[in-house]
Amino acid sequence: MIAIILAGGGGTRLWPVSRQNSPKQLEAIVGPLSMLKATYARVRSKFEVEDIYVATAEDQVAAVLSQLPELSIDHIMQEPCRRDTAAAIGYTLLRLSVDRPDENFVIINSDAHVRDPDAYHAVISAAGRAVTADPSRTALIGLRPSYPETGYGYIKLASRLGHGGDGLEIYEVERFVEKPDRKTAEMYLADGSYLWNPTLIVGCVRSFLELYRLHLPQHAELFSQMRASFGSETETKIINDCFRRLPAVSIDYGILEKEQRLLVIPAEFGWMDIGNWRTVREVLARDHQENVVRGSYIEIDSVGNLIHCPEGKLVATVGISGMIIVDTGDALLICPQERAHEVKSIVDRLKADEKFKSFL
């Protein structure tokens, strides 16, 4: 099986640590390793280096290679510009289809935390076996929710098809559900037939590319033009031109929500999407006051805060709770943790004002 690590996101909700020149996957957000290094180490424990590819933005290639020196340049799939996950995945599969069209692949996001790598790899293997048995079908991995999360999309289970090995079961997918409100998420948790959707996809290279013809024909046409240019003198120019013309569409919306023959395997392996500072706090160990601290910090009557500050700076708080304080030296973020998702709007404001663009 081929592992494709997606590492091209901007990570705007983790500003000011995550920046345009060093997005979140290249930073050590939840441990001593960058999220990309941690993801690679987890994948590398079960995959050979020749079976690992990274899809990233063209301007991040040097940084990816410096963090993952074991990978060769031809295993870095370079996106000329960001066009969301349907473009990133499709272009990578297009490249793989030249020499490895009938192999299985797994899509892995570089910004997720996994507490139980053994269970994680067991379900990927089970999904691989399901796809090998029927290469025309794509298998998803869904996570049994442990609380009523409103920030994730959900997968609704349909009929059970059988056992996938390792105590895992295979189901058909009934439908996808967008991020719900709190009351709906509580209903999903009580129902038991709804899974969190981490966009963990296992499929056959050739078969999955066919789904673009069915559901994203404009992508398929531009991919065809790119494929025809491979090895020619005009390859770079044509790929750059075609890539910029690709509609920006997520793989969930563009293909998964439209495809009728998906499989899903429910699993539990301690997964969490590191999407904002609130989830960072939830992942990391807390002190006796439930504060998460990186740097020097003293507090009085302060509970449940995330403090992230540079070496040589002290943060002191009195009587605050549930706050996020992130200091990078040139920028300071302060917000309640329940509004952590709105940090993206700060980045949008920075982009709109010329005098603030140096902080992006």
TrEMBL record:
Fetch the InterPro entries from UniProt: GMPP_N, ManC/GMP-like_b-helix, Mannose-6P_isomerase_type2, NTP_transferase_dom, Nucleotide-diphossugar_trans
Q: Gene3D superfamilies, alphabetically?
A: Spore Coat Polysaccharide Biosynthesis Protein SpsA, Chain A
**MF terms in GO:** mannose-1-phosphate guanylyltransferase (GTP) activity
What biological-process terms (Gene Ontology) are attached?
Answer: GDP-mannose biosynthetic process
Describe the location of the MannoseP isomerase/GMP-like beta-helix domain by residue ranges: 295-350
In this chain the Nucleotidyl transferase domain maps to 3-288
What is the name attached to this protein's record?
A: Nucleotidyl transferase domain-containing protein
